Amino acid sequence: MNTASKTPPPAPDSWRALPRGAYIAEQLQQRLDRWAPGLFGFTLLKVDALSAALSLEGSRLRQGVVMARAEQEGVDLIGDATAMPFAPGSLDACLLAHVLDYSEHPHAILRETEVVLRDDGWLVLTGFNPYGSAGWARWLPGWRRRLPGWRHMLAPARVEDWLKLLGFEVIERDYIGFTNIMPWLDRWQRRRCPHFCPSPAAVYIVLARKRRFPLTPVRERQRVAVPVTRPEMARQRE
């Protein structure tokens, strides 16, 4: 068995290293600009170079920190996303742009993100859609080396299931294609076969929020015995 295919390739240093990367980054930035005004808090964590290139300046998040696995320009902190050097509940938002696609332990990253985010904290993540045009483009000779392996791409439905199990509420989701004809194809796909694949687009972006609902134990109601009254008892009282 070839074990090399199980190891994802190293994460790219810039969006231009990806096929149509500049166009995808531009489209993602438009979504972030639309969602940013609703985000608030103090500290925003961006993981790796692709996340660092995106902006949430329109939000009410006061401070941004960039963390990567290797030292490079613009990085504030060296660390691993599976073991983040932050106290539990110390971050208000986290941006993971294609971080899961280039990791051997994507579920561990989501678990760690859930730990370091405060209650009602925000999580924004993007990924390649294996059942969309990114999965098809993976087999093109010119793009094969510029995309992660098909088995490393995580379907959006799978990611959302993981998020829900970790206590996140998915607030927004959107899809982005390699070209500007994707909105038309996306509407056709949702109309024709919405249950098979939600979108044929190459990239998805998800906005989720960590929820913690207090669990109040419900006490079992005890039946109160109804007093038995008889006519002769009333006469005795008189």
Automatic annotation (TrEMBL):
**The organism sits in which domain of life?**
Bacteria
Q: Under the GO molecular function aspect, what terms does this record hold? A: S-adenosylmethionine-dependent methyltransferase activity
The record's section on Pfam families has: Methyltransf_11
**Coiled-coil regions, chain positions:** none
UniProt xrefs under InterPro entries: Methyltransf_11 (IPR013216), SAM-dependent_MTases_sf (IPR029063)
Where does the Methyltransferase type domain lie? 68-125
Q: Which GO terms describe its biological process?
A: methylation
**Alphabetic keyword roster:** Methyltransferase, Transferase
Q: Where are the membrane-spanning stretches?
A: none
Record's protein name: Methyltransferase domain-containing protein
